Amino acid sequence: METAPSDGPGAELDEILEYCNTLRQSPVPDDSALPTGFTGTLGHFPVYFPEEIAHAAGLLPVNILGGGNKLELKHADAHMGSFICSICRSTSEMGLNGSLQGLKGFITHPICDAAKHLAGIWGRNFPEQLAQILYLPQNPNTPGAVRYVASEYQRLRGELERKSGQEATDAKLAASIRAYNRNRALLRELYAIRRDEPWKLSCTESYLLLRARTRIPCEAHNELLERALVGIRARNRQAQDKPRVVFVGGFCEQPPLEMLEAIDDNCYVVDDDLLIGLRWLTDDVPGTGDPIWALAESFIQRCAASPVQHDERKTKEAYLMDMIAGSKAEAAIVTAAKFCEPGLDEQVAWSKHLDEVGVQYLVLEFEEKMTSFEQMAMQLETFAESLLFATA
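The chain above was modelled as a monomer; its predicted structure follows.
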């Protein structure tokens, strides 16, 4: 990323955010544009993917997050029903229209039936690309969970080495882990500002900064975050009279940016599960011993919660209440993507529990291809006003 001259931290932060928004709308980088050491790009579907393994094998991990609300579907509907979630359909469209032809491979996960079948669509239509399902355990509480994840990671390591032509040695893996540990620490700082001083950083801005990692190497993202954090801390903004809320439901399909902006207009979003896969590991991966085992153990023992995993230590009700309590939120915005079975199941459970404990919440449904937000903006404004009147 080139550094343009600026008039101070605030001006540079504006440039960084504009650059991040450009990245959000940018295609997968061509092989010729990749930094030294990378031989190609590897696409992966949400929610979580061990990017360190691809990084060590010389493949730039690219999180494929659908086509947003600007993509016209011309091919995907011939391959899947209209009742399939928008992100699966638009991801298939991007493959079929040639937008993802430069990928060395595409990895998906059995987080739901639709996502699981993407690998079959990919394998039939793009035989030159590596098409794989990474089977991460939905139940991480069994005694052999770490051993199983380590074996899957080792299998993936071999596949990626063959595709890239580079060996992902233990030393390279350890270096990748160090880079991603730094990234995790910077993202924790970013979310701490959202929690403690939300007037300094909106949910939309935080999301753009986080999403930038889906198109650039981890090391470049670290540099970007370090510079952005300087500008964010230097901001001289006054707190506004807005309710503090948490946002849940953005773990896979991503809400349109306009939806996040509408929420920011009315509320301070002090925590969320947007792109949770990029923040899945909540603490540093150990830097000693077998790096594959360290990554596998971290997936089981140092991980976030999500509707796509059934962890008895993090029940759906408990982890939402922990988000609310830890961020000192007054209410929750409970969302789900249209046709998303895991999300809609969780939404029902969350709503029932919030009713029982007396926490205010707003239920919203979204699609990545949404283009009209007037009604949603009115709902958000009414919700925010009711929260402010309740505490007046």
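The first strand starts at residue 40 and ends at 44.
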